[in-house]
Design brief:
The complex is a heterotrimer of chains A (295), B (343) and C (255).
Chain A: H1 2-23, E1 28-31, H2 33-41, E2 48-51, H3 75-80, E3 85-88, H4 95-103, E4 107-110, H5 117-131, H6 134-161, E5 166-173, E6 176-181, H7 186-193, E7 197-198, E8 205-207, H8 210-216, E9 220-225, H9 230-240, H10 248-251, E10 255-259, H11 271-282
Parallel strand pairs in A: 1-2, 1-3, 3-4, 5-7, 5-9, 9-10
Antiparallel strand pairs in A: 5-6, 6-8
Helix pairs in contact in A: 5-6, 6-11
Chain B: H1 7-27, H2 35-45, H3 54-88, H4 101-118, H5 127-150, E1 151-152, E2 155-156, H6 158-182, H7 185-196, H8 204-223, H9 225-233, H10 235-240, H11 245-267, H12 273-285, H13 289-314, H14 322-342
Antiparallel strand pairs in B: 1-2
Helix pairs in contact in B: 1-3, 1-13, 2-3, 3-8, 3-11, 3-12, 3-13, 4-5, 4-6, 4-7, 4-11, 5-6, 5-11, 8-11, 8-13, 9-13, 12-13, 12-14, 13-14
Chain C: E1 2-11, E2 14-24, E3 29-33, H1 40-48, E4 55-60, E5 63-64, H2 70-76, E6 77-80, H3 92-97, H4 106-120, H5 136-151, E7 159-163, H6 171-186, E8 190-194, H7 198-204, E9 207-212, E10 215-220, H8 222-225, H9 228-235, E11 239-243, E12 250-254
Parallel strand pairs in C: 3-8, 3-9, 6-7, 7-8
Antiparallel strand pairs in C: 1-2, 1-4, 4-5, 9-10, 11-12
Helix pairs in contact in C: 4-5
Classes of the chains: A alpha/beta (295), B mainly alpha (343), C alpha/beta (255).
Keywords (chain A): Signal
InterPro entries (chain A): ABC_Transporter_SBP, ABC_transptr_periplasmic_BD
Domain Fe/B12 periplasmic-binding (chain A): 27-286
Chain lengths: 295, 343, 255
């Protein structure tokens, strides 16, 4: 009987393992900054066996093998990590490599990195299902959209008193030739969520001349520097673009450095807090610094 | 010239080196396969009744084999056409880029990479093929223009072609600059890495056209070894030795445009091989094309395979662009030979 | 064997050669003399097909030069240009062997012929040297040997055009080289050679062609062409002409 019970037990365990591994990939490679962050938030950090170069947050992941840039993955390099699952944005490639990985039995999932809540909703649903934490994922999304809803409501009230400030978001490396976030970018989405008006009208990230930058005369400049943080980023920016020093933003000390890694990929988990922080700066009288921690 | 290596010995060593590189390229990769697995997979792939494990079959058959074949062809074609161009321009410092094929291909690639985001909304799966096609066509078109500009009264003037090549390369460079300016961050990154070349993503679909063109070039050019030799004496001298010089020049340019075009379309721009492999082998076997062309074929193939093995292993699981590796291996070796010879 | 009919070449600066009629016969050595810029090289260029004449025609045998397929023509016509540049390190033997490319006589026969011309041009000891390490005179002899190999053996249906083959040679080699050329002509070869040294021309040539401003100033035996008044008019030289005490050809003594 004992043997019988043991056999039943083993059978059940084996089935469970099979079901579990069929439904929920155990070894993950993530090629996309915000996706990686979400996987960590949803408790999947231990399943990650490799990440791409755009996955820079949180710091604890940096010991993992790096599979290179998301658009230039190496089939064998990824296979060497023996993953069950590769997730990334639509930009992930090159396509022949993805085909080879699929043939090798790796589940390749591409998730949109578009900056809107519907996309985030479906992304989180899928990640939750694959990680076996659908409830957690649903909760995360609800909280995310709630935070943004509440912020919107408060901004609505504030905007009745004060007009929306003109804002530019610059991405740069040590201040040199910064790229300005235009229409359709995550930076643009962030400015709008924080209640600002994006003064840049082009689509995508573009380098503008410092004359153009000064001419737009933003009331606030958000600077996301890849290498420098905080005041150092501000200083580097002004040093490389002296024309900016006459703008409203600089004269009234409204240059706001943010962590550049929040802008990689789609809507990441840290964005609502960043938006709240920025909103508090845009409307100092109406919105006190939120409870959420400073990014 | 007693310091020259015996031709037979050199050719034998180069062929052995190539075979060794082929083996290493099939056996080494970020994914460690036991030796037995690799051998079984190879035996299975060559039709022997040997069972092999699925993963080894996939890695060896679908990833490493096309990649190895591609590396062989790209290296051989670049080195062979390098020899052809040095013969055509009678200058040991000429390289296939002189007649505009590389810059044309780069322009084609830039158009495809940047244009794909702006103008035509193609399914993303088709983009690599579009890139190859554009690169190939770009190389052919610019080379044809250079050739046309160099032709006067039915004769192709090599010096005029050289200058036309420089001018068109500059123009292509400007156009690429404009496209780069229009490109966004990610596109730019793609463009940069294309300019450094890579055999990553080699697949049979991309291999066949290269294999066809490469084999044609590799079979055709050595047949013209004697004619190339006489061309080094001068065009008039070659003509008086019975060579149809205009036809020969046309053939050399066509071979180079097609060969380099196909190589670049498959693997991006890989500099250095076309310039240095012929030069280096000329130091070893002398300038006789009957020896130089076969040596360049195997020498180019070996260098490229070796560079690719390093490119895929050094930063594994990520990859290094191969152009960086070819330059890092080739340049010091070349300098070493140069200094040793001049003493 | 080689015939020019009304050969004229016009360039931007004017007529290089004008209305030249000439017949080069089998077995003769024709010397071409004339001051710098007289059109000697242009004439050679038009005779061998390197320059397209503005008007007139060149015939090799019975057919116009242009009607010959290049590979066949190379069996009958060889040209030594005034200057050849070769910046690749071929050995002397390799360069000379290029002269055998138009032929399909096999390695054994070719090797024998190359050995013979190496000896004739006094190059045997240099045969394994790299061309790029040779002196100017050695290079010139190497190219000459290549041309001789191309037309070997000398027969009456072959033409040799030599543009200043002795310009870089020492006196010993000037004579030895021209003696070889003379011998080949005696075997039936038709030879035209540009020379600056009139005494060399008088000694080795059967006929001389004197050019001035692209036109024929004299054509005939050395004794007919080398006249003091003509040399004064063409070269602005004051000379005495005497008979060579040993070889009996005209001897030009510069005053």
């Amino acid at each position: 009987m004992k043997i019988f019970r043991l056999a039943i037990g083993m059978l059940l365990w084996a089935t469970a393992v099979v079901v579990l591994s069929a439904d929920q990939p155990q070894r993950w490679v993530s090629a996309g900054g915000s996706l990686t962050e979400w996987i960590v938030v949803l408790g999947g950090e231990s399943r990650l066996v490799g990440i791409d170069t755009t996955s820079q947050h949180p710091e604890s992941l940096q010991a993992l093998p790096k599979i290179g840039y998301q658009r230039q993955l190496s089939a064998e390099g990824v296979l060497a990590l023996r993953p069950d699952m590769l997730v990334g944005s639509e930009e992930m490639g090159p396509p022949p490599v993805l085909d080879q990985l699929r043939k090798a039995g790796v589940r390749v999932e591409t998730l949109s990195a578009d900056a809107n809540l519907e996309t985030l909703h479906s992304t989180l649903d899928k990640l939750g299902a694959w990680l076996g934490t659908p409830e957690d994922a649903r909760q995360q999304f609800n909280q995310y959209s709630q935070t943004l809803q509440q912020l919107k409501a408060r901004l609505h009230a504030a905007q009745a008193q004060h007009p929306a400030p003109g804002v530019l978001l610059l991405i740069g490396g040590t201040g040199d030739r910064p790229l300005v976030a235009g229409d359709g970018t995550l930076g643009d989405w962030l400015i709008k969520q924080a209640g600002g008006t994006n003064l840049a009208t082009q689509t995508g990230y573009k380098a503008l001349s410092s004359e153009m930058l000064a001419g737009l005369d933003p009331a606030y400049i958000i600077i996301a520097d890849r290498r420098l943080e905080g005041a150092a980023a501000t200083q580097a920016l002004l040093k490389q673009n002296p024309a900016l020093s006459q703008s409203q933003a600089v004269r009234s000390g409204h240059v706001l450095p943010i962590d550049a890694t929040v802008l990689v990929g789609g809507l990441g988990p840290r964005l609502p807090a960043v938006a709240e922080h920025l909103a508090a700066q845009f409307y100092p009288q109406d919105l006190a610094e939120p409870v959420a921690k400073k990014p | 010239m007693s310091r020259r290596v015996s031709p037979k010995l050199l050719l034998t060593s180069l062929i052995s080196l190539t075979l060794l590189c082929v083996w290493l390229s099939l056996a080494l990769g970020p994914l460690r396969l036991p030796l037995g697995e690799t051998l079984r997979a190879l035996a299975h792939l060559s039709g022997l009744p040997v069972a092999a494990n699925d993963q080894a079959l996939l890695v060896v058959g679908q990833i490493r084999l096309p990649r190895t074949l591609m590396g062989l062809m790209v290296g051989a074609v670049l080195a062979l056409t390098g020899v052809a161009m040095q013969g055509l321009f009678r200058n040991p410092l000429a390289d296939p880029g002189l007649i505009g094929v590389s810059s044309g291909a780069a322009l084609g690639a830039a158009l495809a990479i940047v244009g794909a985001e702006y103008f035509f909304a193609l399914p993303i799966g088709l983009q690599p093929y579009l890139l190859s096609l554009f690169a190939f066509m770009g190389g052919l078109i610019i080379t044809a223009m250079v050739y046309r500009l160099g032709c006067r009264e039915g004769q192709a003037h090599v010096a005029t072609m050289l200058l036309a090549g420089i001018a068109l390369t500059a123009m292509a460079g400007a156009a690429i600059g404009l496209l780069t300016y229009l490109a966004d961050d990610t596109t730019l990154r793609l463009l940069t890495s294309w300019n450094l070349g890579s055999l990553n993503g080699a697949s049979y679909a991309r291999l066949w056209p290269l294999l066809g063109i490469g084999l044609a070039v590799a079979l055709w050019l050595p047949r013209r070894a004697d004619a190339l030799n006489t061309l080094l004496l001068g065009e008039s001298e070659a003509r008086h030795l019975g060579i149809d010089v205009e036809r020969l020049k046309g053939e050399l340019i066509l071979c180079t445009a097609l060969g380099v075009g196909a190589a670049v379309a498959a693997a991006g721009l890989i500099g250095f091989v076309g310039l240095v492999v012929p030069h280096l082998l000329r130091l070893l076997v002398g300038p006789d094309h009957r020896m130089l062309l076969p040596s360049a074929l195997f020498g180019g193939a070996s260098l490229l395979l070796l560079a690719d093995i390093i490119a895929r292993l050094l930063l594994a699981p990520a990859e290094l662009p191969i152009g960086i590796v070819t330059a890092f291996i080739g340049a010091p070796f070349f300098l070493f030979l140069l200094l040793r010879r001049s003493v | 064997m080689l015939k020019a009919e009304g050969l004229s070449v016009h360039h931007a600066t004017g007529w290089r050669i004008r209305d030249i009629n000439l017949e080069l016969r089998s077995g003769e050595v024709l010397g071409v003399i004339g001051p710098n810029g007289a059109g000697k090289s242009t004439l050679f260029g038009a005779l061998c097909g390197d320059i397209h004449p503005t008007s007139g025609n060149t015939f090799l045998g019975a057919k116009p030069l242009t009607a010959w397929p290049p590979a066949i023509r190379a069996l009958h016509l060889a040209v030594l240009p005034q200057a050849s540049t070769l910046s690749f390190a071929f050995t002397v033997r390799q360069v000379i062997r290029f002269g055998r490319l138009p032929h399909a006589t096999g390695i054994k026969a070719d090797t024998q012929i190359v050995d013979t011309v190496l000896d004739l041009c006094d190059l045997t000891e240099l045969s394994q040297r790299s061309y790029t390490t040779l002196s100017g005179g050695e290079r010139q002899r190497t190219h000459l040997a290549r041309i001789l190999a191309q037309l070997w053996p000398a027969t009456s249906n072959k033409v040799l055009l030599l543009d200043e083959p002795t310009s870089a040679l020492d006196p010993h080699h000037q004579h030895s080289v021209l003696k070889v050329v003379r011998q080949m002509a005696d075997q039936g070869l038709a030879v035209a050679v540009v020379l600056h040294d009139m005494n060399l021309a008088a000694r080795y040539c059967d006929r001389l062609l004197m050019l001035k401003h692209g036109q024929v100033e004299g054509l005939g035996s050395p004794a007919d062409v080398l006249r003091p008044e003509r040399l004064k008019a063409v070269f602005d030289l004051d000379v005495l002409i005497q008979e060579h005490p040993v070889h009996r050809h005209p001897l030009v003594i510069y005053l």
